[in-house]
Design brief:
The chain has 261 residues and is of the alpha/beta class. It is built from 9 helices and 8 strands. The radius of gyration is 18 Å and the shape is globular. InterPro entries: AB_hydrolase_fold, Esterase-like, Mycobacterial_A85_antigen.
Length: 261
């Protein structure tokens, strides 16, 4: 495998940022690794970080490079800071960046497929929200999305934060009036409803969460909603686990297996 830290300028954000990229490499002599066969254009997993992290975190906390070594897929890990994969009310256009510019740049820099069936997105916590948001809002680009311990019911969650809490102010900078988040393009439930009513393709969805995770309630609410609609090809898994990297390192292997079904 090849691992590349790519620094580049974003026209959308107006500043330099980074993405980390894993590319398949056909190898015969690398000890402990099976290299995949070279393809002209590689299927790609866009792998998203959580609120406190950046584009390097999946490589630092999991064995993602080893897990994809024999699968023949590339992995693109962007940096969106604390922007919640959202065009911020007071800040930067992180959703436009990750859903448009990042993909175009990654496909121009590296041998990545632009076919919908070859493009997937996954993430943890904030990145789980981002993964489902990208797939539901841009279903023509992604054939499958996976959320690991995702912040999925944001419209309810943000209103539970005390007004004097610094996180409340941060979310207001991101989403604007928090009472208007429900039913907006930043509400996953609303995005799913819009997609169901449209003729656009429906992405496959995978969702998992530990039963001791503080976001478990969010995940149960979204699970109930999706299952009631009975429209999506939907997989849900739960079991013992909290909001930590041991759980996510284990579950990303399940995601990769699910993607390749």
């Amino acid at each position: 495998m090849a691992f590349i830290n790519c620094d580049f300028f974003s026209e959308t954000l107006g500043f330099s940022t980074s993405m980390s990229v894993i590319l398949p490499q056909e190898t015969k002599r690398q000890i402990g690794m099976e290299g995949s066969k070279k393809k002209e254009k590689y299927p790609t997993l866009y792998l998203l970080h959580g609120l406190s992290d950046d584009n390097t975190i999946w490589m630092r906390r999991t064995s993602i490079e080893r897990y994809v070594a024999d699968l023949g897929i590339a992995v693109v890990m962007p940096n969106v800071s604390r922007g919640y994969y959202t065009d911020m009310a007071k800040g930067y256009k992180y959703f436009e960046f990750v859903s448009e510019e990042l993909i175009d740049l990654a496909q121009s820099f590296f041998p990545l497929s632009d076919k919908r069936e070859d493009n997937f997105v996954a993430g943890l916590s904030m990145g789980g929200y981002g993964a489902f948001k990208l797939a539901l809002a841009r279903p023509e680009k992604f054939s499958a999305a996976a959320s690991l311990s995702g912040s999925l019911d944001m419209a309810s969650r943000v209103l539970e934060i005390p007004k004097e809490d610094a996180m409340r102010c941060e979310f207001e900078n991101i989403f604007g009036d928090l009472h208007k988040l429900k039913g907006s393009n930043n509400d996953l439930f609303y995005l799913a409803d819009k997609l169901i009513e449209s003729d656009l393709p429906k992405p496959r969805l995978y969702q998992c969460c530990g039963t001791e995770d503080f976001l478990y309630k969010d995940n149960i609410e979204f699970k109930k909603y999706i299952e009631e609609k009975d429209i999506f090809d939907y997989t849900y898994e739960e079991g013992p686990g909290t909001h930590e990297w041991g759980y996510w390192d284990s579950k990303i292997k399940s995601v990769l297996k699910w993607i390749n079904q």
